Amino acid sequence: MKLLRPIFLAILLVATFYFLTTHLGGPTYPSWVTHPSHVDLTEAAGPSSYDSEEQNNIAVYKKALPSVVNITSTAVAYDFFYGAVPQQGMGSGFVIDSEGHILTNFHVVDGARQLEVTTSDKRKYKAQIIGTDPIHDLAVIQIPEKSVAKAEIGDSKDLVVGQKVYAIGNPFGLSGTMTRGIISSIRSLKGQRGFIDEAIQTDAAINPGNSGGPLLNARGQVIGINTMILTGGVEQSAGIGFAIPINTAKAVLDDLVHLGRVRRPEMGVRTIPIGRELADQLGLGADSGLLIIQVVPGSAADHAGIHGGTERAILGGNIPIMIGGDLLVAVDGQAVEDQQDLSHVMQNRHSGDTVTVTIYRGKKRMDLKLVLGESQGVA
């Protein structure tokens, strides 16, 4: 009996182990559950076909992608102990010619000590800043490689709300990303340093990293340069993005490449906009316009005989201004009521151009010829 006890215990242990591993160690299934060795799928009869809209999306992407680049900028900041700390930012751009020139945003390269460009085929190049236009948030940089595909540049003159657009860039560092939407509006946009006339508003998703990349029409032509988004307080798209019209960039590209800056025209005046109430108080001959409070000595306006303010006054209770100057109401027949209007007129002019300015000197209306000078930071 003593000999059988160990054998009985061994059998009991084996039986217990078998029960635990087969009945309690895994899930239990109802009787209708099966475990076939091969899953029988219903597969498509042939290769996928694309509808006309999908085909166009694909065509735009394939056409534009080779010219789009990722730009990594490295700047230097200083920590609490005044040690140099490299900081990196990312943006996008696109190649515009066979010389390796790339168009992007000024804020993408602003303050950069070093720039690296990565092309769509993952090749990397050091880049050099060639020219900047902070007012319109534009910059041209260049890489040594001349064989990168060029973007096809379109025309932003006759864009319409509802037109289909595509954005390609590197949002959050995700290179080669394309989003699609429509033109939501065409409006003047106040940037950090100036007005951008006829900026393109779109609902195509634009996120950090898209800056400087192309906004394309349905033919894959560049019609804008993606520049900013409305975020609602968070750094991501809220369905409202803006692009600089490509014609704005085309107008200054030669200056950016050859001079490194933009030769903007100026009159040489400092102004404030006025309305009907103030115009009545000052006894002016028009209800609105730009009151010239100062004429820069030796400027185009000075040579044309335009008068600045001569008497000190307080505007709105605490703002000192000079009154008694001329009231500017038009340039070449285009009405001017505020600085944005004047910026729009001047955008289509060049230094050295002769324009006709319409002013009121008191109640007297006058037309004066003025040869525009080169901007030094005034109108």
Can you walk me through this structure?
This protein has 379 residues and is α+β, with helices and mostly antiparallel strands. The protein folds into 3 domains: 62-142, Trypsin-like serine proteases (Thrombin, subunit H, Beta Barrel); 164-252, Thrombin, subunit H; 265-374, Pdz3 Domain, CATH 2.30.42. It has 7 helices and 22 strands. It has helices at 4-24, 52-64, 106-109, 246-258, 276-282, 300-304, 339-347; strands spanning 68-78, 84-95, 101-104, 114-118, 124-133, 138-142, 164-169, 177-190, 195-202, 214-216, 222-230, 240-245, 265-266, 269-274, 289-295, 311-315, 319-323, 327-331, 334-335, 354-361, 364-371, 373-374. It has a 6-stranded antiparallel beta barrel with strand order 1-2-3-6-5-4. A 6-stranded antiparallel barrel has the order 7-8-9-12-11-10. The mean pLDDT is 86.
How is the secondary structure organized here?
Layout: H1 4-24, H2 52-64, E1 68-78, E2 84-95, E3 101-104, H3 106-109, E4 114-118, E5 124-133, E6 138-142, E7 164-169, E8 177-190, E9 195-202, E10 214-216, E11 222-230, E12 240-245, H4 246-258, E13 265-266, E14 269-274, H5 276-282, E15 289-295, H6 300-304, E16 311-315, E17 319-323, E18 327-331, E19 334-335, H7 339-347, E20 354-361, E21 364-371, E22 373-374
Antiparallel strand pairs: 1-2, 1-4, 2-3, 3-6, 4-5, 5-6, 7-8, 7-10, 8-9, 9-12, 10-11, 11-12, 13-22, 14-15, 15-18, 16-17, 18-19, 18-20, 20-21
Please summarize what this structure is.
This protein is an alpha+beta fold and about 375 residues long.
